[in-house]
Design brief:
By secondary structure, the chain is α/β, with parallel strands linked by helices. It has two domains: about 325 residues, Rossmann fold (3-Layer(aba) Sandwich), CATH 3.40.50; about 30 residues, no CATH class. Helix 7 links the parallel strand 7 and strand 8. Helix 1 packs across helix 2, helix 1 packs antiparallel against helix 9 and helix 4 packs across helix 10. The structure holds thiamine diphosphate and magnesium ion (MG). Thiamine diphosphate binds next to strand 3 and strand 5.
Length: about 350
C-alpha cells in the first residue's frame, strides 16, 4: 500500500569546545573574554560551594545534599545567559544557576539544612524554590512562561529537570501546553545519564531526549552540556525566542553526574569506574581552563589567588547560614492555609506551650 510521509524530523547537536580546550571558530558564539572568565570563575566557585556542602553534611551541619560535580557548565551558562526579568524554576540540582540568577548562596545552604526560610528569596529575585518532587516543576515552567506572555513581559521562564523526570507525565503535559500556547518557556534537561541508580537506557527507548520536542511542535536541540560555549549559544537563542514571543524550546544538555546522587547514595554500587573516568576526561572546568590558558587569559598564579578568594567566600556563606537566628517553631503552620483550620490552631497552641516550657 503506498504511503505518504506526513512528518519528518531531525535533531541537531551542538558542541564548540573540544576536550583539549580548542574551539570551533565558526561556531564560537560572541563570547567575549570577559564572559569566558566570568563563566570560569563561577564554575570554580560552584565546585567549591558544592564540595563544602558535602563536608558539612558529613559533619552533621547539613541535611541531604545533591551534588553538582561535573554539571557546572550547564548551570553557569544558563544562569549567565538569563536576565533579571527572567524567571527560574529549578529542580534540586541547579544551585549554580540559582546563584548566578541572584539567589543568596547562604540561603540555599540553609534550605538543604532543613530551614524553610532558605527558600524565601528577596522580592526582586525571580526564582522558585527547588522542586524536589521529580517532574512537578515542568508544568510550573509552562505556566510561568504563559503568564509572562499574557502579561506581555519581555521575559522568559527557564525550567530545569533531570533525564529521569522526562518519564513523568508532567514533562509531557508541560511541553504540550507550552507548545500549544506558545509560552515564553525554555525547558532545560540536565541529562546526567542517571536517575539515582536507573540508567538512561531504562528511562527511554528514544535515541535522544531532545527529539521528544518534535511530538509537541516545539524546537528541540541536544547540546554538549560540558561545553560552556555551546550551552551559552543555545541558551541565548532559546531565551531570545521565548522573550520575543517565538515560543518554547527544549534543550537537552548532555552531561554527567560525577558524584553520588545525594549524600544518601553510593554510586559505586551501580556504576562502573570506567564510565566515571570516561566522563572525568570531559570535565567542563578542565576544558574551559585549557581554553583560557591557551588564550593567555589564565595561569597558575591567578588560579591560586582565585581559589583562596573563593574559599573565603564559601566560608562567609557557611557563617551566614549558621548564624541565622533559630526559626520560629510555629512557622510550620504558616503558608499552607489562608485561614488555619481550628484543629491546627489548637495544635499550634499546644506546640507553643510545649516550646515555652
Ligand atoms: C515524584 C517523585 N518520585 C520519586 C522521587 C525520588 N527521587 C528523587 S531524585 C530521583 C531521580 C531523579 O533523576 P533525574 O530526573 O535524572 O535527576 P538527577 O537526580 O539525575 O539530577 C528520584 C526517583 C521524588 N523525589 N519524587
Ligand atoms: Mg539524571
Amino acid at each position: 500500500m503506498p504511503k505518504s510521509i506526513v512528518y519528518e524530523a531531525r535533531t541537531e547537536r551542538l558542541e564548540i569546545l573540544d576536550l583539549e580546550g580548542k574551539v570551533d571558530l565558526e561556531l564560537m558564539p560572541e563570547v567575549d573574554q570577559e564572559l569566558a572568565l566570568k563563566l570560569y570563575r563561577h564554575m570554580i566557585r560552584m565546585r567549591a560551594y558544592d564540595s563544602k556542602a558535602l563536608r558539612l553534611q558529613r559533619q552533621g551541619r547539613m541535611g541531604t545534599w545533591p551534588p553538582s560535580l561535573g554539571q557546572e557548565a550547564v548551570q553557569a551558562a544558563v544562569g549567565m545567559a538569563m536576565d533579571e526579568k527572567d524567571w527560574l524554576i529549578p529542580s534540586f540540582r541547579e544551585p549554580g544557576t540559582m546563584i548566578a540568577h541572584g539567589v543568596p548562596a547562604h540561603l540555599i545552604y540553609a534550605h538543604w539544612a532543613g530551614d524553610e526560610r532558605g527558600a524565601c528569596y528577596p522580592e526582586n529575585i525571580r526564582c522558585f524554590p527547588p522542586a524536589v518532587p521529580v517532574g512537578s516543576q515542568w508544568q510550573h515552567g509552562a505556566g510561568v512562561g504563559l503568564s509572562l506572555k499574557l502579561r506581555k513581559e519581555r521575559a522568559a521562564a527557564v525550567v530545569f529537570g533531570g533525564d529521569g523526570s522526562t518519564s513523568e507525565g508532567d514533562f509531557h503535559e508541560g511541553l504540550n501546553a507550552a507548545g500549544v500556547f506558545k509560552a515564553n518557556t525554555v525547558f532545560v534537561i540536565q541529562n546526567n545519564q542517571w536517575a539515582i541508580s536507573v540508567p538512561l537506557s531504562h528511562q527511554t527507548a528514544a535515541e535522544t531526549l531532545a527529539q521528544k520536542a518534535h511530538a509537541y511542535g516545539v524546537p528541540g536541540i541536544q547540546v554538549d552540556g560540558n561545553d560552556v560555549f555551546a550551552m551559552t549559544l543555545v541558551a541565548r537563542e532559546a531565551l531570545e525566542r521565548a522573550r520575543s514571543g517565538g515560543g518554547p524550546t527544549l534543550i537537552e544538555a548532555v552531561t554527567y553526574r560525577l558524584g553520588d546522587h545525594t549524600t544518601a547514595d553510593d554510586a559505586s554500587r551501580y556504576r562502573d569506574e570506567a564510565e566515571v573516568s570516561y566522563w572525568e576526561k570531559r570535565d567542563p572546568i578542565r576544558r574551559l581552563r585549557l581554553y583560557l590558558e591557551s588564550e593567555g587569559l589564565w595561569d597558575e598564579a591567578q588560579e591560586e589567588d582565585f581559589v583562596a578568594e573563593v574559599n573565603r567566600w564559601v566560608d562567609e556563606q557557611v557563617e551566614a547560614f549558621e548564624s541565622m537566628a533559630p526559626a520560629d517553631p510555629a512557622s510550620i503552620f504558616d503558608d499552607m492555609y489562608s485561614e488555619l483550620p481550628s484543629r491546627l490552631v489548637e495544635q499550634r497552641e499546644l506546640l507553643l506551650e510545649e516550646v515555652s516550657r
